[in-house]
Amino acid sequence: MVEINKNHQLAKKSSFVRKTSILILLIIQIAFLSAIFRENFQSMWVLLSIIVICPLILVTYLRGPIHHYDHQYEHILVVSWIPVGAVSSFYLNHYLGLGPVISAAAIGALGSFVPEINKKSNYLKQLPAVIYCGAFIGMSSTRVAPDIFFILAASFFTAVLILVSKSLFSGVGGKLGTLAFTGVAITSFIYYLISYYV
Q1: pLDDT in tens, 153-171
Q2: What distance in Å separates the CA atoms of residue 127 and residue 113, rounded to the nearest whole number?
Q3: Residue 175: closest CA among 189, 188, 164, 191
Q4: Nearby residues of 17 by Cβ (< 8 Å), 6 or more positions away
Q5: pLDDT at 196
């Protein structure tokens, strides 16, 4: 009886974590869509797109099987490659002038060949996704990410998010980009607080 009660409480906590994480991700994606809307306020197509996308995102979160029931963590040696992708993409984007899309695509393409180094290595098979996630951070404009220290800080926060969210949002497209956006948003907020109070 005690074991059943314990399992019930664990299931309740797990459900709360899932629902809270869904709500947080939904708020982040709505904030992202709102920022796009604000920048393109004159375009009626952007407004219509956002009006259509927001309910679809909500339905996906509420209906889709986007979580595993057992919580897993990503290995720290895997997420430590996020800064490599971020700094490389940032360098190609701003110092070589390739632009954000070509830079991220180049780093993502190069990262996809990492498992070819040793096809039997399970560790190397996990690296392309985190390198590509870092490449999203490197796409940031210099108005948002003024220097390499910002990129490293955003990489740290994104790595922490990926570290704890391995079993969350499975099957949701855009997980890596959303987590990279969240890492950049957290770093921007911290930079804002530092500049405001210092």
Answers
A1: 999 999 988 887 776 666 6
A2: 10
A3: 164
A4: 71
A5: 83
Local structure of 168: helix, strand or coil: strand
User: Closest by alpha carbon to 156, among 128, 133, 122?
Assistant: 133
- Total number of residues shown for the chain: 198
Q: What's the pTM? A: 0.72
Q: Which of 24-38, 56-70, 177-191 has the highest mean pLDDT?
A: 177-191
User: Using an 8 Å Cβ cutoff, are 50 and 38 in contact?
Assistant: no
Cα–Cα nearest to 103, from 137, 54, 76:
137
- Write the DSSP assignment of 125-185 as a string of letters: HTHHHHHHHHHHHHT--TTT--SHHHHHHHHHHHHHHHHH-TTBSTT-TTHHHHHHHHHHH
Q: 7-11, 23-27, 31-35, 194-198 — which is least confidently predicted?
A: 7-11
